[in-house]
Write a structure and sequence with these properties.
Length: about 260
């Protein structure tokens, strides 16, 4: 169970969180938001009682309220998200343009934050990476459905062996329990969140090499141009007045301090 300290309750919203049948004809004042399977902390965090918080959830909920929209959380497998958006079953998900096939089919907001892909290793077996080529001959754990452009040539040539798992908790557990794995690939914030929430700060570390940095945005269905414009306007104001930074910092505080 994810437990949040008092510092997060000030930014924890539970706006309109209900199960959805992913109907294409849902009410026009509802935004069906794919939060990822089980959530993607700290960007979206699903609690045991069904409530949702997280950086993107808080930002979207805050702006949606301004224009009388409700936000409905749903969970869609990574490989189905694009189709569900184009079919009208989902309205919005978190995404970087750089991760998207044919991004022109969708509408993207201005960046909310920056996503960094890094390598996590066991503290007693660091790799001290300085170049992707340092990973040749290694076996890595990755998340199912995710791609890592910098490493794709090494995956395709077989120089790096990979095991794909569905979620990050399973990835860290597998890395801890099997000597044959050299590391795992994860988003920096998500990996640090898993480490903190499971008490694994002393077991794993982040390698110094950053694999990728991408502006992390909301990706909307093409039928939402008006709301995307409103969102970008409100987001710019939140950046200017410090509100966005306060939301992000409240979650970073939980995972980047000890």
């Amino acid at each position: 169970m994810v437990r949040l300290s008092g510092i997060l309750f000030g930014v924890l919203f539970t706006l309109g969180v209900t199960p959805t049948a992913l109907a294409a004809d849902h009410p026009a004042d509802e935004l069906i938001f794919n939060i990822g399977m089980g959530g993607i902390p700290p960007y979206t965090i699903k609690q045991d009682d069904g409530s949702v918080s997280g950086i993107f959830w808080d930002v979207l909920s805050r702006i949606a309220r301004e224009y009388d929209y409700s936000v409905i959380a749903t969970e869609v497998p990574t490989n189905r998200v694009d189709d569900f958006i184009l079919e009208g079953r989902v309205d919005v998900t978190m995404r970087a343009m750089e991760w998207t096939n044919e991004p022109h089919r969708f509408l993207f907001t201005a960046p909310v934050t920056i996503a960094r892909d890094v390598v996590f290793t066991r503290k007693d077996q660091p790799l001290n990476l300085t170049s992707p080529n340092d990973l040749a001959g290694k076996t890595l754990i990755t998340q199912l459905g995710y791609s890592y452009p910098m490493l794709e040539p090494l995956f395709e040539s077989g120089e790096i062996t990979r095991l794909e798992l569905h979620d990050e908790v399973s990835m860290f557990r597998r890395l801890a329990g099997a000597e044959r794995f050299d590391g795992l690939l994860s988003n920096y914030r998500s990996g640090k969140w898993v480490m903190r929430m499971h008490g694994w700060d002393d077991d794993f570390q982040v390698e110094p090499m950053v694999l990728n940095e991408s502006p992390y945005r909301l990706m909307f269905a093409p039928r939402w141009p008006h709301f995307v414009k409103l969102f970008d306007r409100e987001l710019a104001e939140m950046k200017e007045n410090g509100e966005l930074n306060r939301i992000i910092t409240s979650y970073d505080y939980m995972v980047l301090t000890k």
